[in-house]
From TrEMBL:
<dbReference type="InterPro" id="IPR029058">
    <property type="entry name" value="AB_hydrolase_fold"/>
</dbReference>
<protein>
    <submittedName>
        <fullName>Alpha/beta hydrolase</fullName>
    </submittedName>
</protein>
<feature type="domain" description="AB hydrolase-1">
    <location>
        <begin position="34"/>
        <end position="265"/>
    </location>
</feature>
<dbReference type="InterPro" id="IPR050471">
    <property type="entry name" value="AB_hydrolase"/>
</dbReference>
<dbReference type="Pfam" id="PF00561">
    <property type="entry name" value="Abhydrolase_1"/>
</dbReference>
<dbReference type="GO" id="GO:0016787">
    <property type="term" value="F:hydrolase activity"/>
</dbReference>
<dbReference type="InterPro" id="IPR000073">
    <property type="entry name" value="AB_hydrolase_1"/>
</dbReference>
<keyword id="KW-0378">Hydrolase</keyword>
Length: 281
C-alpha cells in the first residue's frame, strides 16, 4: 500500500451506475475514510500533508465524483445526485461502512449520504459546512465567486479566499499549494461544465427554507463540525448552526484561518479528526 498521497497513483473503478471513478488511496487498516472534495477541486486539491497524517493507521480514499477530473460522466447539478453518485463509488469498492470527511461542497454531499444511507456513514467530519436552507447561504458574495469561479483560476485570488491576510496564514497557504501540485501524475483539471453544475448545486442548497433545517436532525451518526474563524465562503456562524442541529455533533473553530483551515492547520486538524474517529463514545 502506498504510504504517501503525493506518490499514490490514480486508479479507476467501474460502478453500477455506468461511471468509471478515478481515485487515490493511501494507508491501511481501520474503517476507511472517504474524502469529499470542494467546489471545482479534483484529486490534486487535497494537501498531501493532511492526507498522510489522516492515513496513519487507516485507509484513506479520495475520489473524483461523477464528471469531475478523470471520472467519466457529466457532473450533476444537485447535491442529492452527487450523494447518490458517491454512494455508487463506495459500492463499487465494496465498502459496507465508511467514515466521511466532506470539505465545503463535499460537506453538503456528506450530509446527504448520512441521510440517504445511514448504515454507510459510521462517523462524519464536516469541514466548512452549512445546513441546507440556512438564511444567507444563497450563493457566495460576488468577490468570492469571482475569485474561485472565473473561467481561468488565479492561484493568488484563491489564496485570498482560502487563507487570511496574516503572514502566517498566507505562508501556510503557499506551502500547501506547493505540496498539492508537486507530483508526476496530475489529475485532469475540472471543466466549465463541472463548475456550472456544482455552483448550481451550491446555490440551490442555499435557497432559504427554514423547514429544511430539520433534515439534519435525522443524522444519527456522530459528527465533527470544523471551520476557520475567518472563512468568507461558509461563514463560521453556519457551522455553529449546523452543530447545534445535529444531535451528536461537536464543533471546533480554528484561529486565524479561512476556507483552507484544514490545510493551514493540517497537523492539528488531523489529530482532532483521529481523536474523533477513535473516540469510544
Amino acid at each position: 500500500m502506498t504510504r504517501s498521497y503525493a506518490q499514490a497513483p490514480i486508479r479507476t473503478v467501474a460502478a453500477a451506475n455506468g461511471i468509471e471513478y478515478a481515485y487515490r488511496e493511501v494507508g491501511e487498516g481501520g474503517v476507511p475514510l472517504v474524502l469529499l472534495m470542494h467546489f471545482r477541486g479534483n484529486l490534486d486539491n487535497w494537501d498531501p500533508a493532511l492526507v498522510d497524517s489522516l492515513a496513519q493507521g487507516r485507509r484513506v480514499i479520495a475520489f473524483d465524483n461523477t464528471g469531475v477530473g478523470r471520472s467519466s460522466g457529466t457532473t450533476p447539478g444537485t447535491i442529492a445526485q452527487m450523494a447518490l453518485d458517491a454512494i455508487a463509488f463506495t459500492d463499487a469498492l465494496k465498502l459496507a461502512q465508511v467514515d466521511l470527511l466532506g470539505f465545503s461542497l463535499g460537506s453538503f454531499v456528506a450530509q446527504e449520504i448520512a441521510l440517504i444511507r445511514p448504515s454507510l456513514a459510521r462517523r462524519v467530519v464536516l469541514a466548512s459546512a452549512a445546513p441546507q436552507g440556512a438564511p444567507g447561504m444563497h450563493g457566495w458574495t460576488s468577490w468570492v465567486i469571482d475569485a474561485v469561479g472565473a473561467p481561468e483560476i488565479d492561484p493568488a485570488r484563491v489564496l485570498d479566499v482560502f487563507y487570511t491576510r496574516s503572514p502566517e496564514s498566507r505562508s501556510a497557504g503557499e506551502k500547501a499549494m506547493g505540496r498539492m501540485f508537486t507530483r508526476e501524475e496530475l489529475d485532469v483539471p475540472t471543466t466549465w461544465q463541472t463548475r456550472q453544475a456544482q455552483y448550481d448545486a451550491v446555490t440551490a442548497w442555499g435557497i432559504p427554507n427554514i423547514s429544511f433545517l430539520g433534515r439534519v436532525t435525522a443524522i444519527g451518526a456522530s459528527v465533527f463540525v470544523a471551520n476557520g474563524d475567518s472563512d468568507p465562503m461558509i461563514l463560521p456562524r453556519y457551522s455553529h448552526l449546523l452543530a447545534g442541529l445535529i444531535p451528536q455533533a461537536r464543533l471546533k473553530i480554528y484561529p486565524d484561518s479561512a476556507h483552507g483551515f484544514l490545510f493551514q492547520h493540517h497537523a492539528e486538524f488531523a489529530a482532532d479528526v483521529e481523536a474523533f474517529l477513535t473516540d469510544p463514545q
